[in-house]
Write a structure and sequence with these properties.
Distance between the termini: 134 Å
Number of strands: 10
CATH class of the largest domain: Alpha Beta
Strand content: 15-25%
Largest sheet: 5 strands, antiparallel
CATH topology of the largest domain: Alpha-Beta Plaits
Helix content: 40-55%
Length: 366
């Protein structure tokens, strides 16, 4: 109580401000502030100080509720903007939590300043505590920073099939400190975001189309042209195989790719999507690579070529393009068809073999 009275006297300006020491010396300093004043003057100064302090308190309360109202409106505004732009749920939650925490911290510091408390000491203590906590949680903060980068740059999203940090699976959740990956045998792998943000990530779901490769080994002496035609017929019968290809009149400046060596699709820029006329179909779409300035082609007919003359077999290289979600079903289905239908058409699969030649034995002398 004595400390509060001394502080009220200091705020009136008629009594010199006396620094308040720690402990029992605060009472002594308060009595020194009252020295030389009559009882009526003391009561008057106390009343004026209390009125001034009450006025500051009322202002602080008003600022608190007004600031809380403004923070709520800003929170709703930012949330609406992020929802209209269909941002990730994890990123939206993280950004909103961060915005609310920062705004409330600014509001609290402002209220402390209105009440007459020195904010510099408060901020210094907060900064020192932040440094200490940061040193103790350096690894955790690295994962936190990695989570922020992943949420902003979006190298992958929930539902993508990725290969990262030695694990392959579907992304189940992206959290602030780690990412949960479900493997193909339904194991939940928790991977820290720090390594994911700085390491290599193979995102199989990023592109809409993928190329499927097979190697079909046939015996020597087969009719290569007949085998190629039979394999192409099998591929063309499957509706999942992309067979569309732009004609020269549609894309006169696009060179034909040899052997089905095509590059994945590039998404159009927002200006072209909004204002440009789109006549491209889902297959065979041509875009301009912004880095190299070269045309990129999506969608090519199946390809069969003589890949290798191996020791025991003639290896045919087979390539076809399909949608990303059809990659594995098409791969396994065509393997089964190759095994069942090619021998029925007269094409045999070789076994490893070794030819051994014996010289004629030498005559035995009596």
């Amino acid at each position: 109580m004595i400390t509060l009275i001394a502080k009220i006297f200091a705020q009136t300006g008629d009594v010199p401000i006396v620094p308040l020491p720690v402990g029992a010396e605060k009472g002594k300093a308060a009595f020194e502030a009252l020295k030389g004043l009559s009882f009526d003057d003391a009561i008057t100064k106390i009343a004026n100080g209390m009125v001034s302090f009450a006025f500051r308190l009322v202002i602080a309360i008003v600022v608190f509720y007004v600031g809380k109202f403004i923070i709520r409106k800003l929170y709703t505004l930012i949330r609406g903007i992020m929802m209209r732009h269909h941002m990730e749920a994890s990123l939206t939650t993280f950004v909103l939590s961060l915005v609310r925490m920062v705004l409330y911290f600014i509001l609290i510091v402002t209220i402390i300043g209105i009440l007459g408390i020195e904010t510099s000491s408060f901020l210094a203590i907060f900064a020192s505590a932040g440094v200490a906590i940061g040193m103790a949680l350096s690894g955790t903060l690295q994962n936190f920073a990695g989570g922020v980068l992943i949420m902003l740059l979006k190298p992958y999203k929930v539902g993508d099939f990725i290969d990262a940090q030695g694990y392959t699976g579907t992304v189940k959740a992206i959290q602030i400190f780690h990412t949960v990956i479900n493997t193909t045998d339904n194991k939940a792998i928790i991977v820290p975001n720090g390594g994911l943000s700085t390491g290599t990530i193979n995102n199989y779901s990023l592109e809409k189309y993928r190329r499927v490769d097979w190697t079909v080994a046939l015996s020597y002496g087969i009719d290569y042209e007949a085998a190629s035609a039979q394999i192409l017929e099998m591929l063309n019968e499957d509706p999942r195989v992309l067979r569309a290809e732009r004609s020269d009149s549609d894309t006169p400046d696009v060179p034909k790719s040899a052997g089905g060596e095509v590059q994945p699709e590039v998404k159009r820029g927002w200006w072209k999507r909004v204002f440009g006329k789109s006549t491209a179909t889902d297959l065979g779409t041509t875009e301009i690579d912004p880095v190299a300035g070269l045309p990129r082609v999506v969608g090519a007919p199946p390809f069969v070529g003589l890949g290798e003359l191996a020791d025991s077999s003639v290896n045919l290289t087979v390539r076809a393009w399909t949608r990303a979600e059809d990659y594995w079903p098409l791969f396994y289905e065509m393997n089964k068809r190759f095994y069942k239908e090619l021998p029925a058409k007269g094409f045999s699969f070789p076994f490893p073999q070794l030819d051994v030649h014996f010289d004629s034995p030498l005559p035995v002398k009596d």
